[in-house]
């Protein structure tokens, strides 16, 4: 995005225009494809609902045929016919059975024939299709007494039409010695047109092909299906596709293929819907969209070009003027730039000319103030000279202390010599240029300071110092320990009648920080004063009137390292004071 923003306005405008020209057709294409998917899905759902109704009808027909076979097969007359061995009685019973079958046939015109055969081979039927019944008998020799689908039979010279076969073994149900024994077979031959007619009733899209298959054989194909002429291999393949539509290319056209199982006749229905017919209306809409797209782009291009001219031309003129101004020609400041275009461009022109006038005025003021600045620079140099001269005084004092040290040695006064030497070391340390020093140097200066106090109070002040290994060379801010030791001596030990001890410890902590601990066994701090001191250390008020040295040290540490570091004070009245200075360690 940043790289794009650095391009010229012309390039950005052209790029945005190109993106719009590409996006608008892309959106139209995507919308057309999405609409196509929606229509195909809706057709898929529609086919599923239609075939669901067909499956229900096939299931109802199967249940009806099963009911007919059970009711007829276990009728008392039929049972007597099947169990009778006497030829004359068998003949008379067969007439009665035929009468029953005739009644059933009259109410179910789709039934081509009903055949009942007993165990000894005697039979009765409506149309004498006994050969089909014997085939069923062979198939059902080990079958139980439920209805069995026998398959599809193609029309031949002996069978005038395509039919479906259903058969069922019959068992003796009368209270005789043969009760439960298989005594015969009933076969129903159903006209295939009963199912084909149901398919023909389907309201469907023009060009949709339907195929009815059972036991792997094609039973029926509508006119469109015959025209599409799918072979057995493809029909077998499509039978496994399931109810979700799958797109297939057949003869150069795309079809939505679906397969629906018909378990009652061990078959399925395959539908092939031409996608081109589904989206036929969308094609007209697509062409209309392209025309509208062309007109829209034409209408957008004209004002777009005008917009570019009214923006880019004035901006180009302004850039050229600014380049002349950048060249350093001050005469340009006395001219004006004239920009024509939108109201905003004219506002820019007015404001730019006002800015030129202001720059011209400021240039004059700059020339006037240059002399004043030159004079101020001279004054600054004089101030720096005074500062350098002021540094001579500490050096003079240090040299004077060295002279006193020499006199003390000559006179043999060791105490004066040591105190003067300690004071000289502190003075040189204080005027040392660096803001950070090694911990070892800081503690040496603290030792010099204590030496001075020990000279003032002989025998009253004791001093011990401990430093953890590895901390001697750690850099710390200069003069942060001395003010704390000064407080310990002045407020802790001097008021104490017998003096006391100051212990300085520098210790390493586990969380990558160090602590400098100053402990004294002096008079301690009263609770009220201790609370006030802690409040002063926490406060950001730099004008605190008490413990100014500790306050200064704490503020310097917090400014240098952050809020997590600084001074903590603990004290017990009459027992002494402990001051902890928390400092970070440099990265390893």
What topology does this entry show?
Layout: H1 2-5, H2 9-73, H3 76-83, H4 87-107, E1 111-118, E2 123-125, H5 130-139, E3 148-153, E4 163-171, E5 182-191, H6 193-200, E6 209-214, E7 217-221, H7 223-228, H8 232-239, E8 246-250, E9 253-262, E10 267-274, H9 275-278, H10 280-326, H11 343-390, H12 392-411, H13 414-430, E11 436-438, H14 439-456, E12 461-467, E13 475-477, H15 482-493, E14 500-508, E15 513-520, H16 527-538, H17 548-561, E16 566-572, E17 576-584
Helix pairs in contact: 2-10, 3-4, 12-13, 13-14, 14-15
Low-confidence stretches: 379-393
User: Strand pairing plus helix content: what structural class?
Assistant: alpha+beta
Give the end-to-end Cα distance, rounded to a whole number of Å: 40 Å
Count of distinct strands: 17
What are the key terms here?
588 residues; 5-stranded antiparallel β-sheet
Question: What features would you describe in this structure?
Answer:
This protein is of the alpha+beta class and 588 residues long. Helix content is 55%, strand content 20%. The strands form 4 sheets. Strands 2-1-5-4-3 form a 5-stranded antiparallel beta sheet, sandwiched between helices. The protein has a 5-stranded antiparallel beta sheet with strand order 7-6-10-9-8, with helices on both faces. A hairpin with a 4-residue loop joins strand 14 and strand 15 (513-520).
Structure in a nutshell:
The chain has 588 residues and is of the alpha+beta class. Helices cover 55% and strands 20% of the residues.
């Amino acid at each position: 995005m940043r790289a794009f923003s650095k391009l010229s306005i012309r390039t950005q405008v052209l790029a945005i225009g190109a993106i719009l020209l590409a996006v608008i057709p892309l959106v139209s294409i995507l919308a057309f494809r999405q609409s196509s998917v929606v229509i195909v899905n809706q057709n898929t759902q529609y086919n599923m609902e239609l075939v669901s109704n067909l499956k229900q009808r096939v299931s109802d027909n199967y249940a009806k045929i099963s009911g007919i076979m059970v009711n007829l097969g276990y009728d008392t007359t039929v049972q007597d016919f099947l169990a009778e061995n006497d030829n004359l009685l068998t003949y008379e019973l067969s007439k009665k059975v035929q009468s029953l079958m005739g009644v059933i046939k009259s109410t179910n015109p789709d039934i081509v024939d009903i055949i009942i055969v007993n165990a000894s081979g005697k039979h009765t039927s409506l149309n004498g299709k006994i050969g089909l019944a014997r085939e069923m008998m062979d198939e059902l020799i080990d079958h139980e007494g439920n209805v069995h689908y026998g398959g599809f039979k193609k029309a031949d010279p002996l069978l005038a039409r395509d039919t479906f076969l259903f058969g069922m073994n019959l068992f003796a149900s009368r209270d005789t010695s043969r009760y439960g024994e298989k005594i015969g077979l009933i076969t129903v031959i159903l006209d295939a047109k009963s199912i084909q007619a149901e398919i023909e009733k389907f309201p469907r899209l023009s060009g949709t092909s339907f195929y009815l298959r059972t036991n792997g054989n094609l039973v029926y194909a509508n006119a469109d299906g015959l025209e599409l002429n799918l072979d057995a291999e493809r029909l077998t393949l499509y039978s496994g596709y399931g109810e979700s539509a799958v797109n297939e290319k057949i003869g150069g056209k795309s079809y939505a293929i679906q397969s629906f199982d018909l378990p009652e006749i061990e078959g399925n229905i395959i539908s092939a819907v031409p996608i081109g017919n589904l989206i036929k209306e969308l094609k007209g809409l697509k062409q209309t969209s392209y025309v509208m797209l062309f007109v829209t782009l034409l209408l957008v291009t004209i004002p777009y070009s005008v917009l570019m001219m009214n923006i880019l031309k004035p901006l180009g003129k302004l850039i050229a003027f600014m380049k002349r101004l950048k060249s350093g020609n001050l005469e340009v400041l006395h001219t004006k730039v004239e920009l024509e275009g939108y109201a905003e461009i004219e506002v820019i022109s007015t404001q730019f000319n006002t800015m030129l006038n202001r720059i011209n005025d400021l240039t004059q003021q700059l020339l006037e103030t240059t002399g004043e600045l030159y004079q101020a620079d001279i004054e600054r140099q004089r101030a720096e000279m005074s500062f350098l001269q002021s540094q001579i005084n500490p050096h003079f004092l240090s040299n004077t202390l060295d002279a006193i040290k020499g006199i003390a040695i000559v006179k043999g006064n060791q105490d004066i010599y040591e105190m003067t030497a300690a004071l000289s070391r502190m003075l040189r340390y204080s005027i040392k240029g660096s803001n950070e020093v090694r911990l070892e140097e800081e503690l040496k200066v603290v030792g010099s300071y204590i030496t001075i106090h020990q000279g003032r109070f002989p025998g009253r002040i004791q001093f011990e110092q401990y430093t953890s290994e590895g901390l001697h060379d750690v850099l710390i801010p200069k003069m942060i320990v001395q003010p704390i030791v000064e407080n310990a001596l002045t407020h802790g030990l001097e008021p104490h009648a017998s003096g006391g001890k100051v212990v300085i410890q520098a210790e390493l902590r586990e969380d990558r920080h160090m602590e400098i601990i100053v402990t004294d066994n002096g008079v301690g701090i009263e609770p009220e004063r201790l609370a006030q001191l802690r409040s002063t250390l926490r406060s950001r008020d730099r004008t605190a009137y008490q413990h100014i040295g500790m306050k200064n040290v704490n503020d310097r540490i917090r400014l240098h390292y952050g809020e997590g570091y600084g001074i903590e004070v603990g004290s017990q009245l009459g027992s002494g004071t402990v001051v902890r200075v928390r400092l970070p360690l440099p990265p390893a």
